[in-house]
Design brief:
The complex is a heterodimer.
Chain A (H helix, E strand, L loop, with lengths): L1 H57 L2 H11 L22 H13 L40
Chain B lengths: L15 H9 L5 H38 L6 H5 L12 E2 L5 E13 L7 H11 L5 H8 L6 E7 L1 H10 L4 E10 L7 H4 L1 E2 L5 E3 H5 L1 H7 L6 E2 L4 H17 L4 E8 L5 E7 L24 E2 L5 H11 L7 E3 L4 E3 L2 E3 L8 E3 H6 L3 H11 L1 H10 L24 H8 L5 E2 L1 H12 L3 E2 L16 E2 L3 H17 L13 E11 L2 E15 L6 E8 L17 H15 L10 H7 L18
Parallel strand pairs in B: 1-7
Antiparallel strand pairs in B: 1-2, 2-3, 2-4, 5-6, 8-9, 8-20, 10-15, 11-14, 12-13, 16-17, 18-19, 19-20
Helix pairs in contact in B: 4-5, 10-18, 11-13, 11-14, 11-17, 13-15
Classes of the chains: A mainly alpha, B alpha+beta.
């Protein structure tokens, strides 16, 4: 009657010992990982400080100004470059646009734009036709219709 | 065989079931029974010990595996970074740009007792660190002391070179080194530290303890400076300094509504990374420590106190036909009109006579009270140790009242004056100037020193000075600059020196609702061909202000406005009265 208990207890002891052993080794491994990670964190922290200092050093306004003057065509902003939405011209009314568009569309090719008499959105004008077989493409200026 | 009953000594008093068990064995007598009993007790004891031990182990096992989260086990306690007590907090500008930081460097020291051959070691050390003196190194290495510094803050390559020498007795110690990545750009504001990390000047000294308490990993100290504004100020002032061959220059940009200083420059300046390389004069902060008789810029205050106290009205005026002669002094106008001048004209043409008479109307006590209220008679509050006390007249009589009206006989620092000026244009509220960035939404407590109405009138007057008066060259199209010139003669032995000037210009923009105050000062400028030899503020400091405002306004997000637009014209309208005779003619020739 007693030996099953003994066996159970022995098994229990074995299981607990094994468990503890594994736990212990896991903890040791974790401690090692932790030490490595802590050292890495510290290294990265130092590196980040150096990089921050370097970044600040390299972005000195006087240096950036000298570089911009040498390599970029940037100039200080002029006040004429700043506007407000309110200062934009009013949008053309929808009815006017439609009317002007239809009139412009009735004009013969090549006369739809440029006369300036009609108000409204720009209307597509003359377009060069596709070259036929055997034709060469030459400079547009020499082929403009009269 | 029966055992003698007498040999049984009776049950040993034990506990619980054990006693009963032993009683069952009463038939066993003698040494055998005793041996069994002892054996059982021992077994029981061992079992108990084991039971307790395993219970503890089981408990610990359950705790480690079930109760504790795996992630938060030992790692969380062991990985907490150790807070370094050495070192200081970083300093950043209002946009988070790094201005001062610590870098970990190695410093070389020696245990002189362990160095075998001091002379040879010294030669080899100086071979890789040529900036050291051979004699000094040899003396230290032969000192037989356990700790002597050889060189602080080595670069990594220097450290590698020294390490490569392999000399016994030489060691490295990790140290924090203070680094200012922008060099001299913010030198007078930040100050510098010594090699041991003690704040020596500037904010480094003022916040020395706090920066140590925060530590290098703590929250950075955020100052109110904007490096972009600071750069523009320094750039323009440096150029002006070269062009006008000045002894020095100072400038600051102040937020008129919060008191925050966005830029503060004093030239000449120094590199805080190598402070000892600069002459002592370069370490003198002209913007906060230097006190100067600032000249006509003070007329703004005189007009303010006259209007606010009711001594005169904007329609009022004074006769500036003839110079004032008091005792041995003569007060005359540089831009003399020789006629009756209205209050706006007194400011526009910068009339000393008019300002002096106006100050007399305010009265000696009234003037002192107002100047005191504007914060010009006491020590200004600023987060810097280098703050100058104003110099006030020893005996404040009528003459002092008259001269103080146009900025002579009373010396204040530029930062102190700029704060007072901000109050003149921001609605009349004096705010303490600060170098610490205010938190968003933080309410700034100020003192109402003049009425809002007077401040509104002053805004129109100052705009008129730039549109029509002595400050015309300070115009920055679109930004509605208003301001006042100030040219003061420097005091020397036996009186004022006519050729040694302090030329300054104080401005605010946009004048419809001033956001920023700019104050620029040139110490002893010399005129050039372009200025026709003039070194006065209208020719030197005013155009400088124009350039500074044109450059910083877009950075600060000030939207340009059309000067000719109706709202601006309405806001800046200023009636210019003149005195006419019975026939409707101006009394004096203009």
């Amino acid at each position: 009657m007693r030996w099953p208990i003994t066996v159970v207890v022995l098994l229990l002891v074995l299981a607990v010992s094994l468990g503890l052993y594994r736990l212990e080794s896991e903890v040791q491994q974790l401690e090692r990982d932790l030490a490595v990670s802590t050292a890495k964190v510290e290294d990265n922290y130092r590196d980040s400080r150096i990089l921050a200092a370097e970044s600040s050093f390299l972005s000195q306004p006087s240096r950036l100004q000298a570089l911009a003057q040498r390599h970029l065509a940037l100039r200080p902003m002029a006040i004429t470059q700043v506007g407000t939405l309110a200062s934009l011209p009013l949008k053309a009314k929808a009815a006017d646009t439609k009317d002007a568009g239809s009139k412009a569309a009735n004009l013969p090719d090549g006369k739809a734009r440029g006369d300036g008499a009609e108000k409204g959105p720009p209307v597509p004008g003359w377009k060069p036709r596709k070259p036929r077989r055997g034709e060469r493409i030459v400079l547009a200026s020499s082929r403009r219709p009269q | 065989m029966t055992l003698p009953a007498t040999s049984y000594q009776g049950p040993v008093p034990l506990t619980g079931g054990l006693e009963a068990e032993i009683e069952d064995d009463t038939h066993l007598v003698g040494s055998k029974a005793q041996a069994i009993r002892i054996g059982r007790i021992r077994l029981l004891t061992v079992a108990l010990v084991f039971a307790v031990s395993f219970s503890v182990l089981a408990g610990r096992l359950i705790e480690l595996t079930v109760i504790r989260e795996p992630g938060q086990s030992l790692a969380s306690t062991a990985a907490a970074p150790t807070k370094s007590t050495a070192g200081r907090a970083d300093i950043v500008d209002r946009n988070g740009i790094l201005l001062a930081t610590n870098l970990l460097t190695a410093s070389l020291y020696a245990d002189a007792r362990s160095v075998p051959d001091a002379a040879k070691a010294a030669r080899r050390v100086v071979g890789v660190l040529p900036e050291l003196s051979l004699a000094a190194v040899q003396e230290r290495l032969s000192s037989n002391r356990a700790f002597v510094w050889l060189k602080r803050n080595l670069t990594p390559s220097q450290q590698a070179a020294v390490n490569g020498l392999g000399i016994p007795g030489l060691h490295f110690r990790d140290e924090q080194r203070r680094l200012y990545p922008h060099g001299s750009l913010e030198s007078h504001v930040l100050g510098f530290t010594d090699v041991d990390g003690n704040g020596i000047s500037g904010m480094e000294k003022y916040f020395d303890q706090e920066m140590r308490d925060r530590g290098p990993r703590g929250q950075a100290l955020q100052v109110s400076l904007d490096v972009r504004v600071q750069h523009v100020l320094r750039d323009e002032l440096s150029e002006a300094m070269g062009r006008f061959r000045t002894k020095g220059a100072a400038g600051l940009v102040l937020n008129a509504n919060t008191g925050e200083i966005l830029g503060l420059v004093s030239l000449p300046d120094f590199d805080p990374n190598h402070p000892s390389a600069a002459p002592a004069l370069a370490r003198f902060n002209r913007a906060t420590k230097g006190v100067y008789e600032l000249g006509s810029v003070f007329k703004v205050l005189t007009v303010a106190m006259a209007l606010d106290s009711g001594a005169t009205k904007i329609r009022g005026g004074y006769d500036a036909t003839k110079p004032i002669r008091v005792a041995r002094y003569t007060i005359r106008d540089s831009h003399a009109k020789k006629r009756w001048l209205s209050v706006p004209e007194i400011l526009i043409y910068s009339s000393n006579i008019g300002a002096a008479k106006m100050a007399l109307d305010v009265g000696r006590d009234g003037q002192r009270q107002y100047l005191d209220r504007f914060g010009l008679l006491g020590r200004p509050s600023l987060e810097l140790p280098e703050v100058g006390m104003p110099i006030t007249p020893a005996r404040w009589g009528d003459i002092s009242t008259m001269t103080a009206a146009y900025g002579h006989g009373l010396a204040v620092s530029p930062v102190q004056f700029a704060s007072a000026f901000a109050a003149m244009v921001n609605g009349g509220v004096l705010l303490p100037a600060t170098l610490i960035k205010r938190k968003p939404g933080e309410r700034t407590v100020g003192v109402q020193v003049i009425s809002e109405r007077t401040s509104n009138q002053l805004r129109r007057l100052l705009r008129a000075v730039v549109e029509k008066g002595t400050g015309r060259k300070a115009q920055a199209p679109g930004y509605l600059v208003g301001g006042k010139t100030g040219t003061a003669e420097k005091a020397g032995a036996g009186g004022y020196r006519r050729k040694a000037l302090i030329s300054s210009f104080v401005a605010a923009f946009p004048m419809t609702a001033p956001k920023y105050v700019v104050y620029l000062l040139l110490d002893e400028p010399q005129g050039d061909v372009e200025t026709h030899g003039y070194a006065t503020a209208g020719w030197t400091a005013a155009p400088l202000t124009s350039r500074v405002v044109s450059r910083i306004a877009p950075i600060l997000g000030v939207r340009p406005q059309d000067n000719e637009s109706a709202p601006v014209q309405r806001a800046m309208a200023l009636p210019l009265y003149s005195r006419v005779d019975s026939r409707g003619r101006n009394i004096a020739v203009n």
